[in-house]
Amino acid sequence: MAASRFRLPLLALALMGTLAACGGGSSSSSVDPDEGVVDPVDPSEPVAPVEPGPDGGARPGAAADCFNAVLYTTSATVRLEYAVSGPLSGTSVSEYTITPAATFEGQSTSKAQGTVSTTYTGQPSAVSNVQTFVQVDGLALNELGNITETFMLGSIITTRSVNQPVYRDSKFMLAAGASDERSFDRVTVISGPFVPDSMVRTTETRRVTYTGRETVTVPAGTFETCRFEFTVAIKGERDTATDWVAVGSGVSVKSVARDAGSAAETTLELTQGRINGGAI
Fold first, then answer.
1. Residue 279 resides in a domain
2. In a domain, 212, yes or no
3. How many whole angstroms separate alpha carbon 168 and alpha carbon 233?
4. Neighbours of 103 (CB within 10 A)
5. Residue 105, pLDDT score
6. Contact (Cβ atoms closer than 8 angstroms) between residue 126 and residue 115
7. Deepest of 22, 68, 157, 224, by most Cβ within 10 A of its Cβ?
8. Domain tally for the chain?
9. Backbone torsions φ then ψ of 190, nearest 5 degrees
């Protein structure tokens, strides 16, 4: 489940420096109609451990330094290329345009619109059109929802998700070691030629912890980053992810998503990134 819940936000919102992974919001392009309400995440529940960075662990430093206003308040173009490893290996390329003045569900919002193309070894590429809607409130990001069009068997499956209430992502406001936990409903409408039109309401509880600064080396280079730990609970399942967001650019340079059921891990590492044509 982690791959589906976290991949959309980490890819569709990596350019916006937010999960969004994992959520990603943690929207899935496929929805289980049986998913329902869950209890909040236990605040005492430990965050799944991740290998320390090259410097041996997290250090103090402001999460706000990893917030990049350019990715929300100006017209911008972004291209992010990742190497994918885990149960499947391959590449993922995200290309987006940021529109700072858009509307979604009657509300003013910033919009990230573009494509995500994922190619696993020995398999054809999977391409999705993604639109993600986020309001900027200081250092907080209000995630309104998203629209995803997935090409499947020569046709398009459309998924439209609306967060009720909007999910307020406060990770850039956190002090090192602090957490924020919120619950919200997601109303998802799925339509396409091979699936019956359906509407599903799920309740998601998301907890984010800012652990501090880490130096991370990926194929694109060595970056000073803010490390965030995420737990997402839906219908009793609690998947986790770690995201390393680069200081200055606000781009996710590495992410690790973990599936609670299978214990499988999927890792994305930035191989190349550009904002408005300039290298990250």
1. no
2. yes
3. 16
4. 11
5. 95
6. no
7. 22
8. 1
9. -115, 135
Q: What own/partner pairs with CB < 8 Å and gap ≥ 24 does 143-147 have?
A: 143/18, 143/20, 143/25, 143/167, 143/168, 143/169, 144/104, 144/105, 144/107, 144/109, 145/25, 145/27, 145/104, 145/105, 145/186, 146/8, 146/12, 146/25, 146/27
Q: Residue 11, class by beta-carbon neighbours within 10 Å (0-12 exposed, 13-18 middle, 19+ buried)? A: buried
Domain span at 230 = 2-273
Spell out the residues 6+ positions from residue 132 whose beta carbon is closer than 8 angstroms to its own.
12, 13, 16, 111, 112, 113, 143, 146
**97 Cβ neighbours under 8 A, 6+ residues apart:** 75, 76, 77, 78, 112, 113, 114
Note whether 20 and 169 are within 8 A (CB). yes
147: Cβ contacts below 8 Å, ≥ 6 apart: 130, 131, 158, 159, 160, 161
| Segments of the chain scoring below 70 in pLDDT | 1-58, 152-153
Asked whether residue 280 is domain-assigned, the answer is no
The vertex-33 CA angle with 105 and 135, nearest 5°, equals 25
Amino acid at 211: T
CA–CA gap between residue 53 and residue 197 (Å, rounded): 45
Q: What is the amino acid identity at position 68?
A: N
Q: Return the pLDDT at 202.
A: 94
| Pairing outcome for strands 76-85 and 126-137 | unpaired
The predicted structure's pLDDT at residue 260: 78
Q: pTM for this structure?
A: 0.81
